[in-house]
Structures are given as C-alpha cells and as structure tokens.
Design a protein that fits this description.
Strand content: under 5%
Order of helices and strands: HHHHH
Shape: elongated
Helix content: 55-70%
Length: 103
C-alpha cells in the first residue's frame, strides 16, 4: 500500500502537469506522511543529501567551457567531432563548416 501511495501520487501529479522534479519531491513527501515519518526527519535527510561538491560542479563546468571557448579548444573539439561523425547524416547536427572547411 505504501508503494501505491508513492507511485500513485507521483503519476497523479505528472498527469496534472506538475514538473518532474516537483512531482518527485511532493510524492516523496506524501509517502513520508503516509508512513507517519516526521517532517523533521524528511527535511534533515533532504539537507544532508546536498554537499558542497555537487553545488560547485555546475559553476566549474561553466568555467571549463568558458576557458575552452577562449583558448580555441572548443572549436578544435567540434572540428574533431565533425571529422569523426560529420559524414553520417545527423551525426553532428551543429557542425557547419564554412566554405574553406573551418568551423
């Protein structure tokens, strides 16, 4: 019955058009309330799941992309990917070299 409440609330929220992330969170909250788990325990578990490494991964990923774009490495990577799969139809959709073969 617990699984039915969890999955049922998730699918009902999805059918109502609620985004997936919110549906998962609200379904987990509904499941926790169904099994009489205190909300304090749910919030403590939620806060302990977020660590500094996962929060820093996104800005460092953006920084790495900016460094690659400024140094020209991104252009060379796209050209290399175009050489590998550019001849396949739909292989690299964003690869459009100009008439001299440059990216």
């Amino acid at each position: 019955m617990d699984t039915l409440v969890l999955l049922g609330s998730f699918f009902v929220l999805m059918m109502l058009g609620v985004p997936v992330a919110y549906s998962l969170g609200l379904a987990a909250l509904a499941g926790a309330l169904w099994i009489d788990l205190p909300l304090d325990a749910v919030m403590i578990q939620l806060a302990s799941g977020i660590n500094k490494f996962s929060l820093l991964a996104i800005p460092f990923f953006v920084l790495a992309g900016a460094i690659m774009a400024e140094g020209g490495m991104a252009r060379r990577l796209v050209a290399f990917a175009g050489v590998l799969v550019g001849f396949i139809r739909g292989g690299l959709v964003c690869f459009r070299p100009d008439q001299r073969g440059r990216v």
